[in-house]
Amino acid sequence: MYRISRLLCVFCALYVSCVKTNAADKPIATFSIVAFDPTTGELGVAVQSKFFSVGSVVPWAKAGVGAVATQSWANIQYGPDGLALLAKGKSPAEVVKALTALDAQREFRQLGVVDAKGRAASFTGKRCMDWAGHVTGKHFAAQGNILASEAVVKDMAAAFEKARQQPKTELADWLVAALEAAQAAGGDKRGRQSAALLVVREKGGYSGANDRYIDLRVADHKTPIQELDRLLKLHKSFFRGRHLARPKKSKSKE
Fold first, then answer.
1. Integer Cα distance of 61 and 145 in angstroms
2. pLDDT tens-place values along the chain, 254 residues long
3. Measuring CA to CA, which residue among 172, 181, 190, 198 is closest to residue 69?
């Protein structure tokens, strides 16, 4: 009898633990942008959310291949699988179709993809929480869910387009400008908490050992985008040589 009671206690404890874990899983309601710079070949992702450490979940990128943002009830496998498909020559539209076709929970997902040719595609599942949607343009895709309104993604896209026309700026600047505009339009209607910026470049990381040119994360902050901008300025100061030595991508069909 004692053993049976102990087993029941263990079972109950495991059950409660599982319930708590599932209850803790929240939609990664956020706004993000994936983009490509045809001049340098850099690829990047910028994101903000009322979610702890969003940078550990949403952004994925590989130099010479592409960038992926996976959010809402995020399917993390979209990141590595999406990059693998891009590396095999699939277009962003084909990648989105392939990833979502195999996912029984696709209507809860949101996804943005851009490749090293500047082609872009987005997906917003029908069961993502309002307001949810996306905008795609030349060399970028902007998407978000649980937003104040459609203006968030529209302003994010417009700000990116405007920022890349500014002299002496780079992809990282354009991405942060897009986040700032999205927040000014209302952003995530639940509030603010974290942000991240990932930009990849061939041999752009420390000592040229990898492609992580810029990898900044704000895990928990009252004004995460402002903090992200501050960190980017520090990055430019600490790694001035990398920012000055911007690569020139050879012209190819895009």
1. 21
2. 444 444 444 334 333 333 333 334 666 668 999 999 999 999 999 999 999 999 999 999 999 999 999 999 999 999 999 999 999 999 999 999 999 999 999 999 999 999 999 999 999 999 999 999 999 999 999 999 999 999 999 999 999 999 999 999 999 999 999 999 999 999 988 899 999 999 999 999 998 899 999 999 999 999 999 999 999 999 999 999 889 888 887 554 44
3. 198
C-alpha span between 77 and 109 (Å, rounded): 12
**Domain layout of the chain by residue ranges:** 26-244
Contacts of 152 (CB under 8 A, 6+ apart): 31, 131, 144, 182, 185, 186, 187
Closest CA to 171 of 236, 86, 78: 236
Reported CATH class of domain 26-244: alpha beta
Phi, psi of 231 (to 5 degrees): -65, -35
Structure tokens at 208: 């040229």
CA 108, CA 73: separation in Å to the nearest integer? Answer: 6
Sequence-ordered list of residues with C-beta below 8 angstroms from that of 45, at least 6 positions apart, any chain:
32, 33, 34, 35, 58, 59, 60, 61, 67, 68, 69, 175, 196, 197, 198
